[in-house]
Amino acid sequence: MSSSCASPAAEKTSHAEASGTSRSATPPATEAPAPASRGTFLLILVTALAPTVWGSTYLVTTEFLPPDRPLLTALLRAFPAGLLLIAVTRTLPRGDWWWRAAVLGGLNIGMFFPLLFLSAYRLPGGVAAVLGSVQPLVVAGLTRAVLRETVPLRRVLAGIAATVGVSLVVLRAEAALDATGLVAGLVAAAGMATGLVLTRAWGRPEGAGDLALTGWQLTAGGLMIAPVAFAVEGWFPPMDAAAVGGYAWLGLVGTAAAYTLWFRGIGRLPSFQVSLLGALSPLTAAALGWAVLDQSLGPVQVTGFVLALAATIIGQLPAHRRTP
């Protein structure tokens, strides 16, 4: 973000007169980073936990859940978690927030989950991950159009570098492309990017906190997924203890907790800055695949991993401003 759009904590600078300096002798202005407060740094770290946890989804899905039930998995991730958060907060939307919660729930959950799984099924996992990694660039355009804010060139370049890095980590030479999968992946990324920007634009409803807002969206999204899931995949399959544990992890930790942290970050940090953290999801998936599933990471993958991680970190650094 430009200095006018960065978070308040990242924009504050201290100004002190140098001792013994004449008023008539004004030193030339220099570029100095605007110091970020410890609170902003911790907020970034906490928000980053969400995509890091999402990176475990592939491992949990392939190792513990029933096969070929992506829509039912999406439903079990979203709907019970949403109802739980509403029960805990005992807060329902009011006024315009009924339709706003439905719109955000549709973009962030109801549309995103099915299209994401469709993309993953029609495309190699690497291609689907790369499509998701373009989300920050979509956010940059929407930030300009909706929020009237400009994303600094440094952060846009960081977003491009992160996409290149993710591509090096997950793409393989034999990856085949499918038109339906490509469209689904791009629409999913664009939809969640739109939801992210609208969440930032609409702010927080009066009297409702992060848990309540997350619960509304998960419930609305789950209600949208349910008829499609049952029509396409039928009723729930038999589940063993491993499957129950896997669904519990995805629902409680990977959805209820992670999305609460994610939406909390969206409400307090610049939109592009938050979206750039999404690169941590495929990076975590690759790291878990190497550590747990014995998947190989060659020199190209390691280079891409370092590039994407470095770009994500650079994209979180406070904007520079001129100081005397």
UniProtKB/TrEMBL annotation:
Lipid metabolism found in the keyword field: no
UniProt KW keywords: Membrane, Transmembrane, Transmembrane helix
Localization per Swiss-Prot or TrEMBL: Membrane
Domain EamA: 44-170, 180-314
Membrane topology reported for the UniProt record: Multi-pass membrane protein
Region (Disordered): 1-34
Compositional bias per record (Low complexity), positions renumbered to this chain: 21-34
GO CC terms, sorted: membrane
Keyword flag Magnesium: no
Source domain of life: Bacteria
Transmembrane segment boundaries: 41-59, 71-89, 101-121, 127-147, 156-173, 179-199, 211-232, 244-262, 274-293, 299-319
UniProt similarity note: Belongs to the EamA transporter family.
Protein name according to UniProt: ABC transporter permease
